[in-house]
Amino acid sequence: MSKHTRRNLLILALTSVFLLICATFLARSVRLLPTLRTSTPVPSLPSPLKGVEFSAQPTDYPGGWPEEVRYPREFAVLEVSSGALDGRQGWGSKLMFKGTPEKASNLLSDFFVAKGWRIAQRTQLDSGGVVVVVDKNEGGSGIWVADTSTEDSTCTNIVVTVFP
């Protein structure tokens, strides 16, 4: 595995973890705040995937890509990478889904649950996106962030990182 591939996977994994931490903090903070009524609009947070580049062209999975992370055909695969982090093999993907982040996350949740994963946490984001953390009894873990595409509001961009 090339140094470039490992670096990309590490960046993808760290970004996913950072987004999860931010989403968790925001979800807990919102519950602690008092409700205020105001006529001034409150600005919403930007998409967590803002600034993440997504290819316009789908690609195929590379040879040897495990079945466990070959997503349903409703998801266009835009980019994939794999590598080891702390001795564990990880698989990262950028996907596109024609539909809402909620529908994309529901479909991905069903996909992972059918493969023996458990939904550990699901957080609705201010942007309308969804962050989902999954895990397995055998120690596997993963996370995805799904949010409306900045290029096409009828599509959802998704970043998935999984360590089976």
Structure description:
The chain is an alpha+beta fold and 164 residues long. The chain has one domain (3-34, 46-163). Helices cover 27% and strands 32% of the residues. It has helices at residues 3-32, 101-114; strands spanning 75-85, 88-98, 118-124, 130-135, 141-148, 155-163. A six-stranded antiparallel beta sheet has the order 1-2-6-5-4-3, sandwiched between helices. β3 (118-124) and β4 (130-135) form a beta hairpin. It starts with a helix and ends with a strand. The mean pLDDT is 83.
Architecture blueprint of SSEs:
Layout: H1 3-32, E1 75-85, E2 88-98, H2 101-114, E3 118-124, E4 130-135, E5 141-148, E6 155-163
Antiparallel strand pairs: 1-2, 2-6, 3-4, 4-5, 5-6
Top keywords for this entry?
single chain; 164 residues; alpha+beta; six-stranded antiparallel beta sheet; 6 strands; 32% strand; globular
Mean pLDDT across the residues is 83
Q: How large is the share of residues in beta strands? A: 25-35%
The helix/strand class is alpha+beta
Strand order of the largest sheet: 1-2-6-5-4-3
Number of strands: 6
Unreliable stretches (pLDDT < 50, length at least 5) are: none
Taken together, the total number of domains comes to: 1
Secondary-structure element order, N to C: HEEHEEEE
Distance between the termini: 18 Å
Oligomeric organization of the protein chains? single chain
**How would you describe the shape?**
globular
* Helix percentage: 25-40%
Radius of gyration: 16 Å
Biggest sheet details: 6 strands, antiparallel
Give me the number of helical elements.
2
